[in-house]
């Protein structure tokens, strides 16, 4: 997601609902104020899949400061959801599958006061048989069996219920730990079976006693064919140019980059970003993702996320000289020489305990990374509150990109302002949502913008 400030006010013109495959940002919503405006009711939906992903498309760029909340409710209770934002759409999916044959309401709240509501009823599952929707094979010999509903792990993870080319997995020594499950229990994974495949057509057998989470079994014993062609390419995978991207992963940081071949495993200890080793790694296809947890410390006791953000667009990704990460053929990857981040999506954040004010009327706002000195901020982007809720006057706002600070100078010729700084121990500060405070441009020519939470913060006067 490119986090780029868009001053065009968000207006919902089209509302297209469809399946999508994106999941990133966790959204928590314990309550949402109804500001009195009526909801725009969208056409209701029925027989909705238990893992339905809703995609909402906008006619202008959707940014986090234009969207107040996206929630799904069941019986007036909020359910946990995940939301992914792109330039012109957001995708919403439940963390856990919906309940069968149940009614839900999806609600969208915009900062311009508009509200949209869509009611939907999920499909009835009890008493119906699950079906296999597809079978996929990767070159590591892992089989992905995709069902049309969540399956029972206890039932599926029994090797005697599965066969490859007429031979039971239990006879192959296949154990419960060799199974995997993902996609909200809709995909069963049979790992590392390549040595049992034949070139060409292979047959997978599933016993009808494999049941879904509602206890419904397959209608009958199922046989499915898949093709296998061994890959003999032994050249080493290399990192693709201009693919190194830094973005938020909740409060954590994700360093993402692509290779020119499918990956088979990623060892996080092979890599560093800004000199910091990740806490764990994930991979999908040709993409590797290194995760740095928000509370993780390095050997010097420094917070890893803080170190990476302090280097900003100049953060470097590199690998050890002899990495052990492998492609899908089991061949180790090429060494990655230090490379600068290409797309930097880590929006600046305020470091509240480093902000302060002085008796002379200055307020220093500290950020966790360099900010663009050319950011077009204005004095009326900042709201200062003094004695008895009085609004204080800001006469100047200056950016120091070297110290990651914005310094506000208040008009001490104004008696209310002078009195507030003289008599108080702290000053209340709020930054307008329209304030255009930018990070430094990355190599792709874009910058990440500060997103104001639109709440007051207290700044201590020294």
UniProtKB/TrEMBL annotation:
InterPro entries: SbsA_Ig. The keyword Signal applies. Residues 1-29 form the signal peptide. Keywords: Signal. Residues 45-122 form the SbsA Ig-like domain. This is SbsA Ig-like domain-containing protein.
